[in-house]
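Hello, quick one for you while I still have it in my head. A protein chain has come my way and I'm curious about its shape. Can you walk me through what the tokens say about the fold? No rush at all, and the record is pasted right below.
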Amino acid sequence: MKLDVIKLDGAKAGTVDLGDEIFGLEPRADILHRVVRWQRAKAQAGTHKVKTRSETSYSTKKIYRQKGTGGARHGDRNAPIFRKGGIYKGPVPRSHAHDLPKKFRKLGLRHALSAKARAGELVVLDSAEVESPKTAALAKSVKNLGWKRALVIDGAQVNENFALAARNIEGLDVLPSVGANVYDILKRDTLVLTKAGVEALEARLK
């Protein structure tokens, strides 16, 4: 697959060949769903907690005698049946993460990249480098290019000036190639790969 390479000012800077085994697959929603679900489950805090019967602050005294009242037999007010009593089998802090094979995660990333390429939402940038970390100049370039919700993936390292200029632009995110992931790619309208980013991803996903 051939794609035009552009500069930040919108000028063309040649073309690049993208491997069909990474950018030319037929995207499968089931694979993308499983990888996104794995990512979001791993990121979930899991700090939910309720008080059990042993943790509520009522007295542990038996509320009335066992026999002769005509009512049910109860112990103390901490029982789950009472208002403000302990919760039975409620949530406790835990990890929501589950396993997903590394090969499947790589496959998911290939399908995410292919989905963007097939939808025409993939842009290849010559390089993500700017001379000075000026947000206004970069914001103007981004507006002229029509990027409203874009993710820029660079090579092994992101240019420091570019990262500083981009961090205060709404809708623009920057990641090194090692941070490329299915969830972040799919939730943006435009995926921007630098030439270094393309090389790094192809090396990572072969």
In short: The chain is about 35% helix and 15% strand. The longest strand covers residues 12-17. The mean pLDDT is 94. The CA atoms of residues 4 and 15 lie 4 Å apart.
